[in-house]
Amino acid sequence: MKITDYVGDDGVIAIASALKTNTALTDLTLSFSYFGDKGAEALSEILGRECVLGTLDLAGNRFKSAGAIKLAGALKANTSLKRLVLKYNEIDAVGGVAVAEALQGSTTLEVLNLDGCLIRDAGARCIADVLRANSVLHTLDLSRNEITSDGLRALAGALAVNKSLQALALRHNVIEDEEMSLLAGTLASNESLKFLSLRAGVAIGYVGMMSIAKALESNGSLQRLTLSETLADRVGWTAISHRRGRSFLTHTSHLAVMNFDREILARTAPPSSSSGSRRKLSQVAQRDAGPDKHAQFCL
């Protein structure tokens, strides 16, 4: 069931009441329905042990940390939910911590979208704790959460031991050279991550791009790396093409998409590179392997 119109708290309370005895509905979308904490509390009452919902999409509503805490309390007992979308609800760090703690023992949740929830470093650290022990979650969107080096360090440490996560979006967070180097160190040994999006709002310089270029040479799993609309657009091509030229292309043949800005690529391709090497690097940087379930979720 998909409802994307205004229903408010009263409408959601009525819907939740009707679903208390639900044994058939498995997908519920109430995105941009303009309900707040009261509506979230009503929904929490149908998420307990008897719940059969596999997908719950609550994107773009008005509940805050109080509503998130109610939902988190119910999620602790839930054994059916596979996909949870809370994006564009400002649940802040308190709500983020509550949701993460609720998912510590989850054996079913595969997709978690917290884009624009402002969970900050405290929430990111708790999500990192989940990743350390979790073997089910394969797609995670933490974009637009004001995460800085503290939270990113925790996430990088978790990715070093996590074996299940395949798609991670960290767009519009505070990622500069130091943070990029931390993530790159993880990429060098990570064998599960296939999709990584860092595009927009990321100030990665030459040092950060050199570290990721080095990591990509030993990483054999990443298929899609998105860095467009970042400072990396201006230096990424230079860093990568100066690293090892043809050797880099040989070691990263598994990478289907490395997305930089095309105009920047044209301007910054080093003249010292052969035309053949520049053409091959450009193809790696620009070609698109087509949509997949992870890319569609994180883009």
Question: Could you walk me through the main structural features you see in this protein, from its secondary elements to its overall organization?
Answer:
There is one protein chain. This protein has a 9-stranded parallel beta sheet with strand order 1-2-3-4-5-6-7-8-9. It is elongated, with a radius of gyration of 21 Å. With about 300 residues, it is of the alpha/beta class. It is built from 13 helices and 9 strands.
Counting helices, strands and paired strands, the structural category is alpha/beta
- Annotation field: number of helices: 13
Strand content: 5-15%
Q: Summarize the biggest pleated sheet.
A: 9 strands, parallel
Unreliable runs: 261-274, 277-292
Outline type? elongated
Q: Overall pLDDT, averaged?
A: 81
The termini sit apart by 24 Å
Strand arrangement in the largest pleated sheet: 1-2-3-4-5-6-7-8-9
Number of strands: 9
Rg, Cα atoms, Å: 21 Å
Keywords for this structure?
299 residues; nine-stranded parallel sheet; single chain; alpha/beta; 44% helix; 13 helices
